[in-house]
Amino acid sequence: MDYDPKALWDSIVSHFAAKTVENSANALDRLFNSQFLEGEMEGSVTSFCAAFRRVVEVRSKFDRKSLEAVAVVFALKRLPASFLVFRQLQFASFKDDDIKFDNFLTELEVELRRQAEAQLQQASAARALAVSQPPVPQHPTPSPAPAPAPSASNKRRGRRPPPCANGIHDPTCTSHTKENCWHLYPHKEMQTGPSGQPTSFPYPVAVRPQPFIDPTSLNLHHQQNQLN
């Protein structure tokens, strides 16, 4: 069976473009399902305009003027919250029933550009503020100060000086001088005795053994002296 593609297409278009109640209802249903999404307003407005043109094409009993007024009011009620002021101004400007759809679209495009420019200005001001502020210095955590090293005098006070021994005088000894050191000069101990050594001597003095004298030899020596 032969068929004419153009004739088939014209038949489909004539069916869906016919000004019938069914087509009008479908077109209005698509129009009322339109949504205006924040951040996608340009695409949302384009879809809404296409849906409105469809309503105008298939209207059966509605005149164009009434359809334009209904479409504008519907769009104003569906706009996002950022268009609150715009919506109030539009409703305030409706002084009669003569609401033009084209005028509404023009003013809506102006509002879209205004909001886009405001966002760009805010972003530019934020970047300028971030650049103008000096960076916050990062202060390192202070470390505790090291304890002072003990001085030489403290070290000397903290330990006892080594005693003189083995015939050597300790130069750091403060209890006696080098000239009075018994270990360096043993004969001075024999001359002065223990009482001649300073009482503050910090270590015990070794007592040297005295020579043993036999009493018999001492008595013979005494008798010999009497005979002489």
Automatic annotation (TrEMBL):
Residues 124-133 have a biased composition (Low complexity). Residues 124-172, 191-228 are annotated as: Disordered. Residues 134-149 have a biased composition (Pro residues). Residues 216-228 have a biased composition (Polar residues). It comes from the Eukaryota. This is Uncharacterized protein. It comes from Puccinia coronata f. sp. avenae. The lineage of its organism: Eukaryota, Fungi, Dikarya, Basidiomycota, Pucciniomycotina.
